[in-house]
Amino acid sequence: MQTSNLTKQYGRHRAVDDVNMHIKKGAIYGFIGRNGAGKTTCLKMISGLSTPSYGEIEMFGYKGKDLQKVRSRVGCLIEAPGLYGNMSAYDNLNIKCKLTGIKKKGYIEELLKTVGLDTVGEKKTKHYSLGMKQRLGIALALVGEPDLLILDEPINGLDPQGIVEVRETIQKLAKERGMTICISSHILEELSKLATDYGIIHNGCLVQELTREELMKKCSERIELTLDNPKQAIPVLDDMGFNSYQVIDKEHIHIFERLGESASLNMELAKAGIPVKGISITSEELENYFLRLTGGDNRA
Ligand code: ATP
């Protein structure tokens, strides 16, 4: 699934501004942004619940008017799930199955098992915990075996136990069904145990897309070297046998191994006539990284 220049304009306000998002098949894509960043608006357009003001969505090789042909391959849970409170989970799912024309025997039981609600019996959903409601919402989104599942803030407001349950359900879906999943949150840390890829949205703009490995590297423990010309230091690093390092910009190199050798590294660089302006060992917490990228130190 990918979007090109996806834009949503509400009057003078651009809720989503020129977003180019790429979700690979089989990925768990963490869509991160503060409250009001534009996540829901973006996901609604991708799910077909709202029309873009500008730009294009492509999924399963279809785009433009042809998107209609593949809309049924997308399941979504956006905002709170619409449940019939006086009915059981089974009956809620039964209604959705009837509307979708699914009559397969044992289908609902299987769905309930997938989201861990197979033992709730006849309990009315109005008496469910928030986590149970969210999991039933996920089950409803799964009716019809979607290839792409879109979940908007499914963890929001859950207690720690609820978070674990929803997280495990999502992991199971990705693993057992090979489903592509896009899940939004305003807390990067929350998705760090789950997502394989990340898109970070701020003020309607997608400020960065990165893989889990790239994110972990950005936030991992490292030696940070500050130099006038990082390129000059590379032969010294190579001679010393460093393999895992990255030139970050015109002044910085990050080294992700042998953190105890910063003193000898400093010495070798000095011997080679390369002045070191700064050397330190740091790591950045995921949440700090997100806050730095979205230009602030407090969450909205
Ligand atoms: P949250 O987690 O708070 O829902 P979000 O990242 O999902 O945040 P959106 O709900 O997409 O953000 O909202 C993005 C911006 O668009 C906000 O400034 C919001 O006020 C505005 N917005 C959303 N829907 C509408 C609408 N129907 N009409 C006018 N403005 C809207």
Short description:
With 300 residues, the chain is of the alpha/beta class. Helix content is 33%, strand content 25%.
Backbone CA Rg: 23 Å
Helical residue percent band = 25-40%
What small molecules does the structure contain? adenosine-5'-triphosphate
| Relative strand content | 25-35%
Report, as a whole number of angstroms, the end-to-end distance. 29 Å
CATH architecture of the largest domain: 3-Layer(aba) Sandwich
Oligomer: single chain
CATH class of the largest domain: Alpha Beta
- Considering the protein shown, what is the CATH homologous superfamily of the largest domain? P-loop containing nucleotide triphosphate hydrolases
User: In total, how many domains does the architecture comprise?
Assistant: 2
Q: Shape from CA axes? A: elongated
Structural class: alpha/beta
Order of helices and strands: EEEHEEEHHHEHEHEEHEHEEHEH
Number of strands: 14
The number of distinct helices, counting runs of at least 4 residues, comes to 10
Largest sheet: 6 strands, mixed
What would the average pLDDT be, to the nearest integer? 91
pLDDT < 50 stretches: none
The CATH topology of the largest domain, please?
Rossmann fold
